[in-house]
Amino acid sequence: MSSCYMYMCYIYIYVISHLFRIAVLAMYIVGKSAGFSHRRYPTVEQRAKCMAGSLYVSVPEDGTVLQLLLTELGLSDSDKPYMALRDDCLHQQRSPALELHVEGPSGGVLWPVLVISQGPLILACLAMVDAPADPRPPLASLFSVSQGLSLLAGLQAFLCGSGSKPDREGLASRLAMMPSILLQICPLGTPLDIPQPGASSASAMPTPAGTQKQPAWKTGVHRGRAVVNVALTEMVRSMQYGNRNRQDLWDVYGTVTCKCEVEGVLPNVTVTLTLPPNGSPLMDVLVHPCVSSLDASVLTAMSVEDCDSSAFSGPYKFPFSPPLEPFRLCSYTSQVPVPPILGTYQLKNDDNQLRITVSLKLHESVRNSFEYCEAHLPFFNRDQMGSVDVKVSSGQLEVSKEKNLLVWVLGQKFPKSREVSLEGSVSFSGELPGPTDPLCADLTAYIKLYFRVPDLTLSGCCVDQHSVQVYSSAKPRIVTSRELLSSEYFIWNSTGTAPVSSGHMML
């Protein structure tokens, strides 16, 4: 079992939660020592122990759990040598859940550890599984997974406040409120609610309005002009080798984010996703707990299984009663036939110089209209750049000798041929060493693409503005958008070695 991708942050919050056990374990600030606190629910842990029997895996000391999590995310031991469990390229990440391997005589595997990251915080949640441990049930069938993700998202919004990067004092004050907040929203180990961003501990619990019961995901009632904003974002990742003996890999991860400013305690909103006639079915669909009903076939399509041509292909209707704050309505993956940009990259040593040849081609199915498009060519483990004699067929080339980096700015359009090329030579005669990377030695090198295409998704999935239905006293203004972004989009030098991945990749 593998884990989801995380990014380096400066502050980490680790939270184990849900019916199984809940404890705020630590705040960790890189380079500094920070406060440490924890809380457990022995009665709930005893229930888990009774259910699991001989297969029960006890949670070790809090500091050990935190270290296991940081090691799994690759955020610790940066100065230590290679560790296969963490660094092996075959360590595939096919699931939004991590597993932590506990060593020792009473060791085992803690699963599923859900992790979310945005801004300066990383939060994790160990959810209880009311099902046999072997074989493991699909994540989409576990209510505790969606409930655990909802709890973490609520805690994250509370800690970050209105912005993605909270000020240090604001974050410290909210962290100090965590014990009382957790006492209210999760008094006995079962999440009952999520805190309102910017609220005080005394007002973290919502106050019911009218005769309708306030739902757990609703933190207040909107007053004013009604607006519904629905944004669909797809991120495409690719590993291209330019080698017949190695299969190129790519995948697509989509999210639908909503902000619904609609009056009423329980307004009803329905968002519909549609695919083109020949579009591939959406898979690995996860939804927000506020979604009231959903066709079971939507949740059963998994990318780790063989694709079934009979899988549900839409339209995908999501009826829900929205919270006030922006939230992720759903996420999904899609198996598209080709990546948007195909490329080849060749490096050759020639008289103490590197000869560089690059070609990129925009696929005909992709709109030739970018907000930005850049190709970065870094050169590691060499002296600082000397002379650079490189020509491009389109766009502009920027040279950063201090970083040993060539930035090919392709701009907003490819030429009519949809093909561009770069060719030339670079020498490394500087007096100072350039940047280093243990994976990129000699001719092992890559190009990394950065691009953004507005009003496009690679899967063809879209939200029709007229299909958004709102049942409220006031007719809202409806705004929809979609975009395609690159994420970890690599083209490796075909004349050198490169990391090899097997199986399906997942963001």
UniProtKB/TrEMBL annotation:
This is AP-5 complex subunit mu-1. GO terms for biological process: endosomal transport; protein transport. Keywords: Membrane, Protein transport, Transmembrane, Transmembrane helix, Transport. Residues 225-493 form the MHD domain. It is found in: Late endosome membrane; Lysosome membrane. The chain crosses the membrane at residues 7-30. Pfam families: Adap_comp_sub. It comes from Salmo trutta. PROSITE patterns: MHD. Residues 198-214 have a biased composition (Polar residues). It comes from the Eukaryota. Belongs to the adaptor complexes medium subunit family. InterPro entries: AP2_Mu_C_sf, AP5M1, MHD. Residues 198-218 are annotated as: Disordered. Probably part of the adaptor protein complex 5 (AP-5) a tetramer composed of AP5B1, AP5M1, AP5S1 and AP5Z1. It is a peripheral membrane protein.
